[in-house]
Every structure is written in structure tokens, then in C-alpha cells.
Specification:
The complex is a heterodimer of chains A (about 220) and B (about 250). Chain A has about 220 residues and is α/β, with parallel strands linked by helices. Chain A has 6 helices and 6 strands. In chain A, strand 5, helix 5 and strand 6 form a beta-alpha-beta unit. Classes of the chains: A alpha/beta (about 220), B alpha/beta (about 250). The interface between A and B is medium-sized, with 13 and 21 residues.
Chain lengths: ~220, ~250
Amino acid sequence: MAPANLQELVDLTIEAFDKADYYRNPVMILADGMIGQMMEPVVFKDRSGVELPEKPWATRGTNDEREPNIINSLYLQAEELEEHNKHLQAKYAEMEKNEVKVESFGLEDAELVIAAYGTTSRICKSAIASLEEEGYKIGMIRPISLWPYPYDEFDKINDNCKGVLTVEMNTGQMVDDVKIALKGRIPDYFYGRTGGMAPTPEEIIAKVKEILGGDR
Amino acid sequence: MAVVFERTKGLTDVETHYCPGCTHGIIHRLVGEALVELDILDKTIGVCPVGCSVLAYKYFNCDMQQAAHGRAPAVATGIKRVHPDKFVFTYQGDGDLASIGTAEIVHAAHRGEKISTIFVNNAIYGMTGGQMAPTTLIGQKATTAPYGRDEATAGKPIKISEMLATIDGAKFVERVSVDSPVNIRRAKKAIIECFKVQLEGKGFGIVEVLSTCPTNWGLTPTESTKWLKENMIPYYPLGNFKRPEEVE
């Protein structure tokens, strides 16, 4: 999960623990360098009423009431391991169905859509606001969960859209997901900075204008 | 007819995968018997290492958890802190505890975690195929030391018990061997005493058990116990290095 501000970081971290508990699966928070070092006021929300599943599998001592529990990840018999893999795949499918998180806007009439997450998505929002003042219609897809990925959200982009620009602080780790989501329907582009350099709104604006064919 | 000996209820009734002549079976039995005699089997949670005894979770008749290589003391720390009223032990080999897991064992001891560790030292990596371990003796051949361990390049074998005995949080440290009936009886006594240190909330305890590996030593089981006696015990002296005064 990729938070874009510190309140979201707090909320997603709390949720991450609950989801990890529910699915018995690690949940990772992708806090980029900016999120990690930034200070913002946050509110810790009331968590009362959160119910977590029973854990009959836990190793708490048998107390002479049941057979011993074993927690392990080793399955030496091929049949046994295949069964375990099927169980994991079913669990992943359930997460893909239930745990997609995404924010989006302006997809119905956008001439171009920016896909970005984390700190980069905030910078992109500034760029989009400036571009709107100049008369551009720019939509946005901000994956909050990077896995499961919000592929379906890209189906909402109108057919006349001229491109989807992925902006990241890396060399394009999300680009393949965007391509999969677009199914070749709309051209995709990428702009990224590395080494801790954050893209500026001006750079993003320039890239959008380059794709859409210059100033208006 | 009177029953003079029977399988301890501390172990499950299955065949183990250990090689013929390997002393893991004896050490498992001693741990199982200790858990039964202290009447703590139903409140025990064990943590297995990576190595030959990774499958120990099938053999101990209590709740068991597998840990990543060397991390058993860290997993045991978590279990014990969540369940301070339960008995938590780790069962680790020398490839696990004395190499990749050195940081975990040192810091678990340093923090004085109230867990007990059975450290099985057979001076070699068993499961992975007889590679040199930190505990391999000078001159001892291993698949990664075909001419024998060379002190100039590999240093001397690490003495874990002596090292841990210097740590304040370690309250019970003893080295035993299972090469003979008398030493097996002493080993069991040490294991029980070590477990009591945890049950009395005194701190961290470890029993280092010198063990054989006939397969990777290239010796028969009887040659192995002889080799242990003649080579390992002189370098790894048996005895208690530390015990809380009250237990004495």
C-alpha cells in the first residue's frame, strides 16, 4: 500500500496490521523517502469495534485440550506443497477481489490521464491543477494498493484519451501494470526521476504538453 | 511384567528422518522426557531451527513453530513475551545457532529472555552436506575444507558456551555430551536444570550438547562416539559454566 500523505500513512499502517492478521499474510507499506522524512499533523482514529478472527492455529500450548499445533512453511511432499500452493492462490484471489484501493478523477473526459502513487501523486496533482488553468483536461489514477493493482480502474478512461502518463520516482516500476491495464487501448508514456530526486510540477507539465503537442 | 522403559509422551510416535547413529534422537528423547517430568508438555511451545532438526516440529509432542535460519531465539522471544506463562524452548544446531544465528542467540541471552535453548553441536553442517561450520575442529575435514580446517584462514572453532557465559542475561550455561550412558544422564540433568531456570523466571538458559554426525564425519556410529570423546571433548570441555545460585 502506497500512502500519499502522513494521515494516510497512519490509517494504512493500522489497516495493514488488521489485514495481515485477517489473511495471515504480510502487508507492506511503501513509504517513499519524502513520506518517511516529512512531518504533518495526524489523527489516530478510534479503533474500537474492530474484530479480528479467532486463531485456533496459534501455538499457545495445548493445555491438554487439543492436538499440538505446528506453524511451519516446509512441505516436503510434492502433493502436500501443491495443495498448499492452491490454498495460497485462493487466498491471493480473495485479496485481489476485496482489497483493491484506488483514487481517481476525470477519467470520463480526460485528454490525458496521469498514473502515480505516493509522494509523486501529490506533485502530479499540483501539475494537473496548473494544466487545468491552461484549459487541459487531465485525469488521474492513484493506486493506493499497488498489489492488488487497480487494473479495472483504467477501463473507465474514455476512448478518446490520448495517453496515460506514468510518473514515478524510479525508472518505471509501475509501467508494466499500466500497460496490462490499458490492453493496448491507449498509448502509455513514462516520466521518472531517481536517486531521491522528485519530479517537479514544471517537469510534469512539460512532459504532458510534449505528449499532447505543445502549448495552447 | 513391569515396564522398565517406554517412549516418552514428550515425543510423537513417528519414525524420525535422522541418519543411523545420529544422536539427535537421544537429545530429542531427553528434551521430551524433561518436558514430561517437569509436567510442562501442555504449556510448552518449541521453536525449530533450519538444519537437520528442522523437522523436529513433527517429533516433539507439543505446539511447535519453525523459524527462519538462525532466528529461533527471536521467534521464541516473541512467543515468550506474548505468553509469559508458557514454557518456550529453541532446538538449534551449530550451523544454525553458531553461524547465521549468532546475533540472535547473543542478543536473546543479553536481553535475558526467559527462554531455554538446546544447542546441538556436531562440529559440521549436517543437512546441507558436511560443510565446515564455525564449530568444525582444526584439521577436521569437511566438504568445504577438504584438507581440514586451517586456522590461518578459518580461525579456531567458536566456543559458544564460554562466550554466552560472559553475558549477564545468560543465567544457565552448561555443555554436555551424549557419547556415553553416563554423559547422557548428565545431559538430561542439565536440560532439566536449564528448563527450571526459565520456569522460575530467572532468565536465559542454554545447554550445549556435543553430538555426532556419522554420515558427514564419514565414520560408523561407534567410531563417531569415539571421535567425539577423543577430539571434541578436549576442545569443548564439558561442565557447567554458569547457574543461578538458588538452583545450585
